Amino acid sequence: MSRPDLNLLVTLDVLLAEGSVARAARKLRLSPSAMSRALARLRETTGDPLLVRAGRGLVPTPRAAELRERVRHLVEDGEAVLRPTEQLDLRKLERTFTLRSRDGFVETFGPALLAHIAREAPGVRLYFLPKPDKDSTPLREGTVDLEIGVVGDSMGPEVRAQALFRDRFIGVVRAGHPLSKGKMTAARYAAGQHIAVSRRRLNKGPIDEALQRLGLERSIATFVGSFPAALVLARASDLIATVPKRQTAYLSDGMYEFALPFDQPELDISLLWHPRLDADPAHRWLRGCVRDVCAERMAHRQPESPREVRRPSRGFDS
Predict the structure, then answer these.
(1) Is 225 exposed, middle or buried (0-12, 13-18, 19+ CB in 10 A)?
(2) Which of 51, 118, 223, 299 has the most CB atoms within 10 Å of its CB?
(3) 175-195, pLDDT tens digit by residue?
(4) How many whole angstroms separate alpha carbon 72 and alpha carbon 82?
């Protein structure tokens, strides 16, 4: 079997992106006739028309639509392989990276991450964005450089992931709350008034499902869209907030924390990025900064009892 001409991948990528022989020819600096011949070769190689006439323009066939993302990733990976390695001068690096994360990451890890970056690369800036969902489109389109979160089913299969730390949900109430005294049980927890955190306005979540297996149901007093908002409300009321411990560690200073008195799986918090940035020296350096800061913060956490812990008030750098 003859080996296909891999140069056709670049041609196909541009044709599918432009949807026009003339525009693709201009982008690749070819004549329209040369691009037409390349399209003919692609049709012969793939056994599909790929682009067909519709009025004055061309539209992709189902086969072409199926290939569009795959071809784009193949071309990007090939360019990354052939790109020469640059010698990174962090003192001269000037770049803005966009980092998308879930509630609490910026508050807990942001100050240390910014200080770490400022020491090594003063010309680098971070643009923190909230993460309202697990859609990987911003990573694929390049509008986001890095994400922090849990790998979900909606995450694109090409997205790279590296574990940062494990987290778990805990209960948090104001200092002096009735739940801060006595043994914590699932029944006592369920009997209180709760703050539910839901980005999609769901009435039931994993906490409710765990309680249901025990024959219990909690009463939801209010819904909020973020964990920091839940902690603000809990601090000023008798409501109970259920939040991820490590990502909200510095938001609950002076409040009473307790381990949930029923089984809940731990969360694997990961660093996520698109493979086209794998070989980028500056991006690789930034990934290392995030890993180092998270590891340092986790190492400085104090040991805790298996059920309840009363944390003294402290600042970000203690």
Answers:
(1) middle
(2) 51
(3) 999 999 999 999 999 999 999
(4) 16
